[in-house]
Design goal:
Layout: H1 2-11, H2 16-21, H3 27-34, H4 42-52, H5 56-61, H6 71-81, H7 86-97, H8 100-119, H9 121-133, H10 153-187
Helix pairs in contact: 8-9
């Protein structure tokens, strides 16, 4: 086992200290195990297999593959590599457990949800604000649906007010014309 432990550690490209830190064993102890001065305890063997996804039979006897590739182990590797939170891991596990039909339904729901947020300016602004406050610029000016020639809502309000005045003027002119026509009819 001592030679296989060294082979495993070197394959993982870890120092004795780095390898030991993940399983709460001192680097000097790893060195002594690799040199055959100490035997690998059952607890340490289990810790190594769990932490590094090692095939226990391979570590004990040299038979089989060095690593076990199961869904849980793969998830753990991704979780560590991409720094998943507990929520990230849960979401990933749930998504992987879905059938293809269920995944399709979930994807359709997500598309509807995203479109609903994008189509609602208030929700969109809340989402944008959330990302900006958390240091992410996931929504840029280039992709911002509500970016326009107007710099602010007040510019839009000014333009709407201008249209409103024009419409009121036209309405007054029509009312004035109707009133004038009514007077002419009564005098006739």
């Amino acid at each position: 086992m001592n030679e296989r432990l060294r082979k495993l550690r070197k394959y993982l490209n870890l120092t004795q200290v780095e390898f030991g830190n993940k399983i709460n064993i001192k680097g000097a102890t790893i060195s002594d195990i690799e040199k055959g001065k100490l035997n690998l305890t059952e607890r340490n063997l289990q810790s190594i297999c769990k932490e590094y996804n090692v095939n226990e039979q391979w570590l004990r006897t040299g038979k089989g593959e060095m690593f076990i590739e199961d869904d849980k182990a793969i998830l753990e590797q991704y979780a560590e590599k991409y720094n998943f939170s507990a929520l990230d891991k849960s979401i990933f596990k749930i998504f992987l457990s879905l059938t293809p039909e269920e995944r399709n339904i979930a994807e359709q729901f997500l598309f509807k949800l995203v479109n609903g947020i994008i189509d609602n300016k208030d929700l969109y602004e809340q989402l944008k604000s959330h990302y900006e406050n958390n240091g992410s610029n996931i929504i840029s000016k280039k992709t911002d649906k509500y970016s326009s020639e107007f710099d602010s809502d007040s510019d839009i309000d000014k333009e709407l007010e201008s249209y409103r005045h024009e419409l009121e003027y036209e309405k007054d002119m029509k009312m004035s014309q109707v009133s004038h026509d009514t007077k002419d009819e009564s005098h006739a």
